[in-house]
Amino acid sequence: MVINTNTSALNGARLLAESSNMLAKSLARLSSGSKITSPEDDAAGLAVSMRFDAQISRTSAAKNNVSNAISYSQTQDGFMGKVAKALDRMSELAILSLDVTKSDNDRVLYNNEFSTLSAYITNVATKDFNGVSLFSSTALSVTIDSEGTTFSMSGVNLGTATYTGLSSASVSTSGGASSALTSVKNAITQLASDRALAGASLARLQYTSEQLSVLRDNLSAANSRIKDVDVADESTAYAKFNILTQSGTAMLAQANSVPQSVLRLIS
To answer: Structure pTM?
Structure first.
């Protein structure tokens, strides 16, 4: 029996320190909700999780970009829908002006509305969305994923001669009405083509937005499996280490009292 070196106490102290350390880690995981509270917990997992976090953030940003592009296209189509109604009415006015029972004075009245609608179409061509022209021939490059891939959204130009030529058309005479009707019909055909083009881009953007939502959910789920703590398992581990810490403390106290028995030998 020795006094200077209490092997039982040393072993007890070491085991108690290990149990206390594991208890602290378990408590940190439960309080943070993450099973990686320090790089040494899972160095490789932390690296993968960091890359996932960055990709999730970029995917969310790309989804915002696509959502804004969808809003742009919807606004664009809303204006074109109104232009379509204006062109429908203008074609109706041209036909009314071709009525042989109408005088030129009557046709002047029709032309007043015709000219007003033509000016409306010219005005729509100047509209913008957050400072970006809605009706320009320039295609817009929309970022559609976390890697910066872009989709070219075709431009719709209401400033072409097909539309601007309507401003010089007139239904104030029978001959003018016939010529104006041809111009309006051409504009209707062009607008139908432009709306179809814009609609195709809008459909593509809608699919892309849905795909980005699914991708973000899947990335988040994969990231969760790496870094999120399983509360049920960790609660069990916490209870285990808590008991070991308490028992280790009690046993260390017992081990520290063993050398006192030496006094019986020298008393």
So the answer is: 0.80
